[in-house]
Amino acid sequence: MLTNKVFMKKTKRGNILKIVREHYLRDDIWCGSAACQTCPADENAALLDEVPEPVSERFAFPHYLLLDTNVILYQMDLLEESAIRNVIILHTVLDEVKHRSAVVYKRLRAVLSDPARKFYTFVNEHHKDTYVEREPGESANDRNDRMIRTAAEWYGKHLAPRVGKKSAQAGVRIVLLSDDADNRAKAMALGLSTCSALEYMKAAKATFAHLLDKIAQRELVSESKDPLFPSHLTMLQIHEGIKGGKLMQGGFLASRENYLEGYVRVEGIEKAVLIQGRMNLNRAVDGDTVAIEMLPESEWKAPSDVVLVDEQTDPGDMVEPDPTFSVKPQAEREPTAKVVGIIKRKWRQYCGILLPSHIQGSTRHIFVPAERKIPRIRIETRQAATLLSQRIIVAIDQWPRHSRYPQGHFVRALGPIGSKETENEVILLEHDVPHSRFSEDVLACLPELPWTITAADLQRRVDLRGITVCSVDPPGCTDIDDALHARRLPNGNIEVGVHIADVGHFIRPGTALDREAASRATTVYLVDKRIDMVPGLLSSNLCSLRGGEERFAFSCIWELDDEANIRNTRYHKSVIKSKSALTYEEAQIIIDDAKQTNDVATSLRLLNRLAKILKKRRTEKGALVLASPEIRFQVDSETHDPIDVKAKQLLETNSMVEEFMLLANVSVAEKIEQEFPECAMLRRHPCPPQANYEPLVKAAEHQGFEILTTSGKELATSLDKAVKPDNPYFNTMLRILATRCMMQAVYFISGTVQRDEFFHYGLAAPIYTHFTSPIRRYADIIVHRLLAACIGADSTYPELLDKKVNSNLCNNLNYRNRMAQYAGRASVALHTHLFFRKRSEDEQAYILFIRKNALQILVPKYGFEGTIYVTGRNNEEIKTGVRFVYDEEQQTQRCGQVVFRAFDPVIVRLSLDSTNVQHEKLVFELVKPYIEGFSVKAQGAAAEVETPKRKGEPQQTTKSKKNKKAK
């Protein structure tokens, strides 16, 4: 049967086109039920059970569930439970979910692909009895609801008992599950069995009663006569307010230190706008896009200097008044605003713990997220006794005006609080790191084994297997994506090659593997595991440039003179065979051992000599040599628990590899931008605002050094000069502070910003990109494709040259890259806690910052930072008889005759405080200089340390032996 779909389309010029499309209808589409004897069976399709066993007793008869769109969009946590079976998904609903939420659609497809779940997709749009035309004036949503009711009616009649058919068929009926009250009312008028997801699960059988916890609370239930928050403006009011200049919009950033404070970043305004107080925050959650209204200047505030944590445990809605923030001078106040509307929520699932209820047997509980920036969430659960010892996941459903906290529902338990496996999972989930197994669609894109390089492959590539190529990487590295070579040419110049794994050969544009890699964007490195961007067959095998194995590469080869000046550059797809996969230490030993004169040693020495010239030239141009307190754990091979930890040591070979990777990235950036000036994927590092440098400049001033920050070169030069012979770690600490002043480097598309904004501040490079790590960064894969198109090794495709598509891709790359960094730091913090659970140590440390109520400490051996609080709340004495005096002008803390200044050496004790199961923390206590009533006694022999200057006294040294026992 043929019918026509007619719709109108408006062109760019404003003309109206009438479009008619043919729509075919059939009467032989299978209903999917094993109880049906009418439809032609499809042996390959998943069957609905002949006699279904529902989880709910709301309807006493055997039935299939037919879902509307809202149930899928909002109750996916319930639908993913294996107990929910025998479900009909209409093609109309599937299509609407696809257009409204890509995330939910992907989750639904995963359920549909599992035959054991008994979810059947019925193509109602093409069945002659279930297809309905859109009526004049009917909205698309109303038409879809009518399609759903029509399909439910048809199923009811289709499965009705017939003479001579199976008797079991008489008991199978349809229940329409809908969270739309209007749709339910119309369905009841037609005589259909229907209810909401909540009503259905309230009548769940005892075995499945726990599933009620997974229902998203969509219906507003007011429990308070008076609203606690101002109402939000409608989208129309927000649009008009922004258009008229009364309102502004931006992303909301909640404070970690003060739950009643946050900021909104508004485009075009350099400094974020302050939001302070519960009413002004008005239910905004970190990450939301909000509309704000500026307050009169007389109501502007200064950021609070008080750490404020929400400690209320009552799940009710009584709100304590906001604490009084200290009044600051007018000069310190910042532009302040209030949130008047929510433009887009960025809610996700949150990890955390459940607080025990004060009321025995209560189902209402408070959930405390692990992320301090997220408010507490009120949920209802009947499993509290079990969940109190677990890390759990909760989703926010709504935040009504009458509720002090947002309301949500329990999703699932992760495992026991404190176990390493559970806490690792929390890190990945909290930082939104995709870490599920690669799907069958993705794995189907991989080459079959055994894989070999063919004669046809060699014809299309430059054969470099005879060149002495080797890789230099950290110990244990299996995803080797770069290798190097250097050799003398007959004309006396030096040929240097950077050879990068040709990942693009295996990942073709538009495939499931390509889409997955683009979504993941980066490999994430935790202390004891790696979350790969691409499957292990590629990352650790076929793409990895392992020693002694032939591999595809993308080579960047220069001819350099002895002063490292580039004479010419060429690029080509190649085949290489690495002579050796070395660690940094192994390569350094070869370079330093004059007895070794083989090809690998000669190549490494040439590379190392040229790298030193390149580095000197970069620093002279103003490239910054910064520092960060990185540490490396030694992990037990069986338990994967940390057994030792030390600060990362950098060798000359680290710098050697880095210099040639930087040179390759700059060369490739110039090439692709020249060829594709509008759509090259590049990386820039914005120059920080001068205000960012204030902590660095002040800290250096107090030590008698002037740090100039008007240009990168001035900063680099003044950092080089800031050296204290009596404190060898001083310059490193200054560079750590300088690192904290920097902006985030980001990916961007060349045609979207002005040419003078391409600059990479930290590297002092006019143009830069990422080419050298395609196994672990998706940006490099795009750059490889652009470079391949430049040299004719591959063709372009529409998305590669689409600025808008790739700008959106850059946004995801920047987000995933940032989250991967945070996840890595969180993993270090977790393993630090594991390392110190059963030990405490006294270690040499330095004061990094002097705070109003604390000393911020850095321990070089481990790279740890921590805080020693010297005053309690309201600046009172923290311990009886001990009083510290803070001098803001001199940036000092004084207790009696002992004066503490930034960069002073101290001895501290490190131990773990596990009293707060949600947030274990490493505790720093002062050992030396010893202050009676405040410091702790040294463990065993006292450690040797230079005591900070006492007021009016010369520097003194206290000597003792340091415990050097290996940990």
Topology (SSEs and partners):
Blueprint: E1 2-10, E2 16-24, E3 63-67, H1 69-74, H2 76-79, E4 87-90, H3 91-100, H4 102-112, E5 119-122, H5 140-158, E6 173-177, H6 181-189, E7 193-195, H7 197-202, H8 235-243, E8 248-254, E9 261-266, E10 273-276, H9 278-281, E11 289-294, E12 337-344, E13 349-354, E14 364-369, E15 377-380, H10 384-387, E16 390-398, E17 407-416, H11 420-430, H12 440-443, H13 455-459, E18 462-463, E19 470-473, E20 482-488, E21 494-501, H14 512-520, E22 524-525, E23 530-531, H15 536-542, E24 550-560, E25 566-577, E26 580-583, H16 584-592, H17 599-621, E27 631-635, E28 642-647, H18 652-675, E29 681-684, H19 694-701, H20 712-721, H21 730-741, E30 746-749, H22 778-790, H23 803-835, E31 841-850, E32 854-859, E33 864-869, E34 885-887, E35 892-895, E36 898-901, E37 905-913, E38 921-928, E39 945-947, E40 956-958
Parallel strand pairs: 3-4, 3-6, 4-5, 6-7, 18-25, 19-26
Antiparallel strand pairs: 1-2, 8-9, 8-11, 9-10, 11-12, 13-14, 13-16, 14-15, 16-17, 20-21, 21-24, 22-23, 24-25, 27-28, 29-30, 31-32, 31-37, 32-33, 34-35, 35-36, 37-38, 39-40
Helix pairs in contact: 3-4, 11-23, 17-18, 18-22, 19-21
